[in-house]
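Appendix B, example 12.
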Amino acid sequence: MLARSAAGLYWMGRYLRRVEHVSRLMEVQVDALVDQSLEQIHFGWLRLFSHLKVTNPSAVLESDFRNHEDWSFSDSFILADDLTFNVDNPSSIVNCFLQGRENARQMRHCISAEMWLSLNRTHFRLKDLTIDSIWQRDPHLFYAEIVQHISTFMGVCAATLYRDERWEFLQIGRYIEHAQLMAALLIYQAQSATMEDYEELDGYDWKSLLDCFQADQPYQNRYGVKVEPNHVMNMLVTDSILPNSIDHAVDQIRMRMGELGQAPAQKSGALAQRFTGRLVSLLRYEWPDVEDKRRLLTLVESLAYKFHDHLSNAWFNYEIIDSSRI
């Protein structure tokens, strides 16, 4: 297929996956405003902005929050607005959705009519909303609805999109975005365990991740009700049958890459394949014996970025050789 079409589908998958990721975390975060402690609320916002690698708009978030006991309400409004409706924030929900929809618009010839209709329904749902309008009712429900919209869109994709290269590039985009975001999130989570400010979170930091990525029930079935950071980390990283684990995402990438076959730029394509294998090896064979989990997660994140570069060079940005000159 055309490189432009492949890239458009890949980036559509990436942007919409980021919408889902941020919406899941925002759903948990705004729900915490009701009955969680100041430390827990502050940690949740800092975790969001830090792992997304975007600058937060509230200076209070970086200051000694214990001297600003009312910040969690006024500043939470500002922070939620920035991560939801600020089109200048590259990771905001609205900005990423608009980018994903624009890629879909340019790829209308590659996607089904039902997919385009599903995206447009969500677009018109978001079009006239502001932080004030969702804050007046239960904002928790708004973010839950966004997750449902993206899930519905992916269901429509699964039901209507032909299983050729279009499907593969869309799925690779979704899963590499998820792997990168989850690695960054868990790196910050592991780092926070050593922060003195957050020694009294009462397990909220880890429990919230289980709730966010639908791992709470599987965790209880395997480990019981007591939340142990190491167990949570292992489940979110290496559980191959948990849909939101890093291992599941990497395995899906490996399978999709196998379906793509030979790349137009063969050298870069082979490199992308090898980086996929390296990621699988790290998670399944090195992870259990490594004590410094944060270091290995950092390596996983780095390899995921390198995989993206090689994939782009192999299928999207490859050099066209003029056969008439050979």
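Confidence is low (pLDDT under 50) at residues 322-326. The radius of gyration is 20 Å.
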